[in-house]
Amino acid sequence: MSLPLNFESLIVEAETLNLYEKLIIQLNKDLLLANIDLEFDVETPPTSLKFMLRETVFNLIQNKFTEYLNFLYLVDVSELKLSMLNENNTNQFSEEVTFLILQREWQKVWYKAKYS
């Protein structure tokens, strides 16, 4: 499996394989486990998904850092990938973290679909 390198290619692949709904379900599951008050409808358009998740990540970084770390742990975002991000600009950082979250959630969904 080669991971998508940007949000657009991730969404195209998810929709092409009819796994976009499962991506949202997986994301909702991990948000619930992390006690984050955010739930996406399976009909949520990709742009809204990205925007709302980015805003949530930004808010967690700014105001609830422990919950942010817990969420990253539950999603299982790579520490190596996180360490390579530029933390100087919080807006840009939260955008990149959002993509890493979605990329990891996509990986989980893809493996479940392929090997289940």
Can you put this structure into words, describing what you see?
This protein has one domain (7-110). The chain contains 6 helices and no strands. With 116 residues, the chain is mostly helical. The chain has helices spanning 7-16, 20-33, 46-63, 65-75, 79-83, 90-115. Helix 2 (20-33) crosses helix 6 and helix 3 (46-63) crosses helix 6 (90-115).
How many strands, what sense, and barrel or not for the largest sheet? none
Q: Report the β-strand fraction as a percent range.
A: under 5%
* Alpha-beta classification: mainly alpha
**Care to count the β-strands?**
0
Low confidence ranges: none
User: How do the SSEs run, as a string of H and E?
Assistant: HHHHHH
**Termini separation:** 16 Å
The percentage helix is over 70%
Q: Can you tell me the number of structural domains?
A: 1
- Shape verdict: globular
- The overall pLDDT average reads 96
- How many helical stretches? 6
Kindly provide the radius of gyration, computed on alpha-carbon positions and rounded to a whole number of angstroms: 13 Å
